[in-house]
Give the backbone structure.
Amino acid sequence: MSDWFLRGDYGAVPTNYAALIVALLLAFACGHAIAWTYMFTHSGLSYSRSYTNTLILIPVIVALVMMILANNLVLAFGLMAIFAMVRFRSILRDTLDTAYVLAVIVIGLACGTAKFSSAIIGCLATLLIMFYFWTTGFGTRHRYDLIVNIQWTRPATELPELRQLLRRHSRAIQCASQRSNEGYAGVDLSYRLFLRDPARSQELLEELKALQGVARVSSLHAGDESEL
């Protein structure tokens, strides 16, 4: 059985299994480094866990593609045509869905080019990575407990009074956006808060509503952020 597996690639170019495994592991490690950097440096309001997972999976799939193609231009153009056809026939709104489609295309390409052992190794590597994402919840990030949107009608020079109230309830504060709107004198503010006591978030909202100059307050808990 092991002898068949080691000789299971019947492509025009023999497969170097040691190089294949090293390439997949290195792509996995480098993808992890990039994904961790993305997680720690992302500062926008919309954060996608599936996009973070895709940053790890795509390098592994691309490494497998390059090992299967083995400088074969005919196979390269065939792969491009297949992926373009799938992309044209269906709109994939999730980046991880795109990675799944690319993975099955590459595995099918390996089978169709008689690289059976490479197809098995690539399939197992993809499955292990997917189960790793599922069991560990990799990419999930809750750096803040609450997002507060405030309509501030007093002059911007009086904002320190508002920030002082927020600091009293929060360990960390980040002003995600601050913009002026026509029609009233003031600004629309959005703060991301890491609360000292998340159970007292309602108390914070009541104090904000009672603060002079606050015309409107709305909040969003971190669990409601886009992290799928």
Remarks:
- The chain has a mean pLDDT of 81.
- Residues 146-224 form a domain with the Alpha-Beta Plaits fold (CATH 3.30.70.260).
